[in-house]
Design goal:
The complex is a heterodimer. Chain A contains 13 helices and 13 strands. Chain A is of the alpha+beta class. Chain A folds into three domains: about 160 residues, Reverse transcriptase/Diguanylate cyclase domain (Alpha-Beta Plaits); about 50 residues, 5' to 3' exonuclease, C-terminal subdomain (DNA polymerase, domain 1, Orthogonal Bundle), CATH 1.10.150.20; about 100 residues, Dna Ligase, domain 1 (2-Layer Sandwich), CATH 3.30.1490.100. The relative contact order of chain A is 0.10. In chain B, helix 1 packs antiparallel against helix 2, helix 3 crosses helix 4 and helix 5 packs antiparallel against helix 6. Classes of the chains: A alpha+beta, B alpha+beta. Chains A and B meet through helix 13 and strand 13 of A and strand 26 of B. Strand 13 of chain A pairs antiparallel with strand 26 of chain B.
């Protein structure tokens, strides 16, 4: 039987800001971009959440909900360092770690020897050590698969731990609302509701055939999850499929205004590719354009290296797809999968 | 319209003209060849709206002049399959064109000549004459490096750069570049650039069949035309800015290698067999008097070729796409090949040491 722990820091960025400035503990704070520059909220603390502020919300809107919201700029170096400290603690228990983001990870402790092999005790110890060594609280979920572990970590947030034993598995998953299943967002939830399906018990009753018919391959997944089944392994490193950079501009601009943004985006992209040591794996270039009406278009083309000309031409074509002004531009590369021997050698360009 | 013509005389211009007709067209009439009989000369025209070729040939006898269009591919296939030395009689009868040769008879559909579009040439800026072999050489020496269906549409063609006394052709796909310059008798103040589309370049080359014959070139703002005694070629120019090729011609190469061209070409051909099928990388290891070319592929197979070369100096290891090297070592015809290199990240300049009219630049690969 597998033993999986899901660790999720409680409002990570905000927690680190409160750790470094205790005066912020009881005031609503958020980390994110300024409203003036059309930023969004990355994280906010619980006092801010009580006003209805949440992550990914436009800062301007958050300030309307909570006018005295204390907005802080992101300090990624601090967050990254805290993340590394957490990773180091995880590594004391298992080397089967799947990081999902800076503050979230799956741990497979099936083979762990610490705490007499008890996943619950390991999770408790990890929580205590992070509180002590990093100075923030994390929530943990323990179960026999990734899906339930992730649902469990959210069950008693913040600073909580939830254990779903194999015996509880069936009853627990049966009672879950469909919104708790990963992959079920607003749209899918609405479709399910229209079918009269609100909980996993409803999904079970509806049967595999109905779900398959309505949702295809995803329906099969829903059916499995409704029984608390998830066979996915904890994967040590997730293979990166693409690298991209994008920027929302302070003011919308028209097609002629694109030219000046190409070079900074390209430099940022090259820097990220260099950091990821992925130059050899590049096999497609793509551009993303978000227009003032929030419609998004992307365009891509095969190429084995980053070329300003290709990006320029892709952008020209992408921008021409709408008469709207432009709000966001993104440049990216898609990466070859597979082992390095199969990966391309990088052809250098004559015209930079 | 009614006339008779020698099959062998008709075949050559018909082949040239039919070459420009695309297999799929946007208008039915573009599948046809326009036949116009004036005096005792027949002119044949084919077009894809970008490139137009008009061939002229003398007929044997004329009963009635006129103009008509007939399916190009079918007429060509008929002419090709008729026997050498035969004579063909054309008769237009209502909407049908009757082709009669000995005991063979064909009735072809037709469309009226006035439906046939012509490529409107704009202003003629510049007119000059040269021998066909000069233009042919410019194209043969460089056309292999043109891009194909690149989004940088201006690379899907060939740059012609004219200045007083010389015509230069440049082609590049962004990874390698080919350039050839020939003397022509032209007076022009300044530099005139024109980008010929890929198809135009290929078709023009096919037309230049008489090396010593003369060709008149007319360079306009949006078109180029070429006239010989047998045909008129018109092509639209690519509206775009060709990259600054002078900037990428390497100037600071300090490692000059001379080698037997055929030995190098064969070494490239053999190592290519085990190069990665998609990326085609081979490694050069240069040392005193020796160039070692190696290749390996994902199956872990390896090829190594050693070629004795004239070289003294620092060692160098650099990767290249072997296909680009094969192209260059095949297009150059001299017995020796001169390579000028500098470092792992810089391009190689490849030249024919006996004839400096062409230079080739190939960017390296990071292997």
């Amino acid at each position: 039987m597998r033993k999986i722990i899901h660790i999720d820091a409680d409002c990570f960025f905000a927690a680190l800001e409160m750790r470094d400035n205790t005066a912020l503990t009881h005031v609503p704070i958020a980390v994110g971009g300024s409203a003036r520059r059309r930023g969004v909220i990355a994280t906010c603390n619980y006092p801010a959440r009580s006003f209805g502020v949440h992550s990914a919300m436009a800062t301007a809107y958050a300030l309307r909900l909570c006018p005295h919201l204390h907005l802080l700029p992101a300090r990624f170096d601090v967050y990254r360092q805290a993340s590394q400290s957490m990773q180091a603690i995880f590594a004391d228990y298992t080397d089967l770690i799947e990081p999902l983001s800076l503050d979230e990870a799956f741990l497979d402790v099936s083979q762990a020897s610490a705490c007499a092999g008890s996943a619950t005790l390991i999770a408790q110890e990890i929580r205590a050590r992070i509180a002590c060594e990093v100075g923030i609280t994390v929530s943990a979920g323990v179960a026999n698969n990734k899906f339930l572990a992730k649902v469990a970590s959210d069950w008693q947030k913040p600073d909580g731990i939830t254990v779903i034993t194999p015996e509880q598995n069936d009853a627990f998953s049966c009672a879950l609302p469909v919104k708790k299943l990963n992959g079920v967002g607003k749209v899918t939830a609405h479709k399910l509701e229209q079918m009269g399906l609100y909980t996993c018990a409803d999904l079970r009753a509806a049967g595999k055939a109905v779900l398959l018919d309505r949702f295809g391959r995803f329906g099969e997944l829903l059916y499995e999850r409704s029984y608390g089944i998830d066979e996915r392994e904890v994967q040590k490193s997730r293979t990166r499929k693409s690298i991209s950079v994008e920027h929302t501009y302070a003011e919308d601009f028209n097609a002629q205004g694109c030219a000046q943004h190409i070079e900074p985006l390209l430099q940022a992209l090259k820097e990220r590719i260099r950091k990821c040591e992925a130059a050899k794996a590049v096999h497609k270039l793509f551009v993303k354009v978000k227009f003032a009406d929030f419609t998004v278009t992307t365009l891509e083309r095969s190429a084995h290296s980053v070329s300003i000309e290709v990006f320029g031409l892709l952008l020209e074509q992408a921008v021409a797809r709408s008469a709207q002004k432009i709000r966001l531009l993104g440049f990216g590369v898609r990466l070859m999968q597979g082992n390095v021997q199969d990966q391309p050698s990088e052809q250098l360009m004559l015209f930079g | 319209m009614q006339f008779s013509i020698a099959r062998d005389a008709l075949l050559k211009p018909l082949q040239l003209v039919a070459g420009v007709v695309e297999r799929r067209q946007t208008m039915p009439v573009l599948a046809n060849v326009l036949l116009v009989l004036e005096g005792d000369y027949l002119s044949l025209t084919g077009t894809d709206l970008e490139v137009e070729i008009v061939g002229r040939v003398k007929v044997e006898s004329v009963s009635e002049v006129g103009a008509i269009t007939v399916p190009a591919k079918k007429l060509l296939d008929i002419c090709k399959s008729l026997s050498d030395g035969s004579s063909i009689q054309f008769t237009v009868n209502e909407q049908k064109v009757n082709v009669h040769c000995g005991k063979s008879r064909f009735n072809l559909t037709s469309l009226p000549a006035n439906e046939f579009p012509s490529v409107e040439p704009g202003d003629d800026d510049l007119v000059f004459n040269t021998q066909q072999k000069e233009v042919k050489r410019l194209i043969e020496r460089t056309s292999f490096a043109m891009a194909q269906q690149d989004v940088r549409y201006y690379l899907n063609g060939m740059l012609w750069e004219l200045r007083s006394g010389s015509l230069r052709a440049v082609a590049t796909d962004g990874h390698r570049l080919a350039m050839c310059t020939r003397a022509v008798n032209v007076d022009y103040e300044g530099v005139k650039q024109a980008i010929l589309p890929r198809k135009g370049v290929i078709e023009l080359s096919r037309l230049l069949t008489e090396p010593e014959g003369s060709v008149q070139l007319v360079l306009g703002s949006s078109h180029i035309r070429a006239h010989t005694s047998d045909f008129t070629f018109t092509s639209k120019l690519v509206d775009g800015k060709f990259p600054d090729y002078e900037r990428v011609l390497p100037r600071n190469g300090d490692k000059i290698v001379m080698g037997d061209r055929e030995a190098l070409r064969q070494a490239f051909t053999r190592t290519a067999i085990l190069a990665n099928e998609k990326y085609r990388g081979v490694r050069f290891v240069l040392s005193d008097g020796l160039l070692t070319v190696t290749a390996n592929n994902p199956e872990q197979e390896e090829a190594e070729e050693q070629v004795a070369v004239e070289y003294q100096g620092d060692g160098l290891e650099v990767g290249f796409n072997v296909s680009y090297l094969q192209d260059v070592s095949s297009v150059i015809t001299s017995s020796q090949l001169k390579l000028t290199l500098s470092d792992t990240n810089s391009s190689v300049l490849v030249e024919d040491p006996e004839n400096s009219d062409s230079v080739y630049v190939v960017m390296p690969m990071r292997l």
